[in-house]
């Protein structure tokens, strides 16, 4: 015991150094977002000085260039709505498929599980075409695509949790005369709350950062934040580095705020999601 | 009671099932069929048998992407898991501020792949500038760049899962081993590692499938440059679909093979590591 205690100050110091190293990429981007674009590529590790500091110019030009606020609104709309749809519908499906023990229900369940290992590229082209044909290629239609493509993991997580709920609870409600819909919404769903938070968090992290699916389904008419950032890279790979740095900072801020507020749930959610997976 | 619930299929299961059919089942089946056809708009598909698969294997870019992806996955999966496990061991010791450290190490995981790619492009180009080269001069830069990026992103995620696993190791067992005079190395190998096996299973699964399917980071960091040499499989498939007119069928055949590879690797890995798990 004694010798581990002696090592601890060094361990602490080591972790501090490691943490600074971990944060430095974000700090470097932040630092460069206040420099003129011609000073970024050749000396990105130097603090802005009187020659290179240009205030908020990168932010104002970047916001205009990619219409940042509209992209932010689009990302927020798609993320909130599709995660709400996913939690609402897959919780019901997860419960139904666990409680109804027919061959058809278990076949369906395994189809959801199967979809979890299928990479997006496998359905990339045909999903885009299907969405085009049935008119889901817009910011509202994409919510249905997100529900469908995201349902595998979510149904799986809900179903795993439902197995741990004793049947007696449902039987008791049944005797009191509640039908399945009342039973689910009044009794089961509140019990599912911890796993619902996990499902919501895992899906927020996926949908908010997703690039390819919205890019292919709704195109560039309505841009989400990742699409808008990628759009800053013009033809032939030329990038306005100043605007890019500022937009990277603005892209990071919302997710960091979200993280600091829901940190406990996010960390628990990752663990719960991993154990069940 | 099951009968009662069953009557409400339309409420409980149908909406999810419809969305799942549109977004997954139909595209998946269509995808398998189309991989055997030549098409440009899906409606004009003509059967060509295994032609697309033969063309895919004759495609140097595809073979290069396959090799690049395989090397990348091996290197990054090993490094991510070793570092994540070591940091998890440190953070389960009684050190000041472990929660703050966990918060910081996990943070990169929340940042999207496109943004991550540009952050690291700035840093790597800044370093390489001193040597008068850029990230896209040599495919080796792109390779190691992606490895470092992926480590930065995923170490925190895997660390969280390893911490949960290490905390589940019973204290009594560790104390008993210490009293018996076991060294730290023996305790790690004989007690901690076997009991943390479920975490290892899941971390390997997540890091293998994430590394193999990498797209956004690859697109933002190098976009495959120089001359597609740093393009991974997902990016190569994307380029085949949307960059080469008339090659949609080949793209779909590549995608089917990609799916089979991911599926087989992941299932084999799960089978091997699950067998090593012991009852806790």
TrEMBL record, chain A:
Any single Gene Ontology cellular-component annotation: plasma membrane
Family: Belongs to the binding-protein-dependent transport system permease family.
UniProt source species: Candidatus Pristimantibacillus lignocellulolyticus
Entry's localization field: Cell membrane
This protein's UniProt keywords: Cell membrane, Membrane, Transmembrane, Transmembrane helix, Transport
Keyword Cell membrane attributed: yes
Membrane topology of this protein: Multi-pass membrane protein
Biological process (GO), any one: transmembrane transport
Highest taxon of source: Bacteria
Name recorded for this polypeptide: Carbohydrate ABC transporter permease
Transmembrane intervals: 12-31, 68-96, 108-128, 140-162, 183-208, 241-261
Cell wall biogenesis/degradation recorded as keyword: no
All residue ranges annotated as the ABC transmembrane type-1 domain in the record: 72-262
UniProtKB/TrEMBL annotation, chain B:
GO cellular component: plasma membrane
PROSITE patterns per UniProt: ABC_TM1
Example GO biological process: transmembrane transport
Lineage: Bacteria, Bacillati, Bacillota, Bacilli, Bacillales
UniProt xrefs under InterPro entries: ABC_transporter_permease, MetI-like, MetI-like_sf
Name by which UniProt lists this protein: Sugar ABC transporter permease
The keyword Protease is assigned to this record: no
Transmembrane as UniProt keyword: yes
Pfam families in the record: BPD_transp_1
Location of this chain's protein in the cell: Cell membrane
Membrane topology category: Multi-pass membrane protein
Residue ranges crossing the lipid bilayer per the database entry: 12-36, 65-91, 103-123, 143-166, 187-208, 255-272
Residue ranges of every copy of the ABC transmembrane type-1 domain listed in the record: 66-269
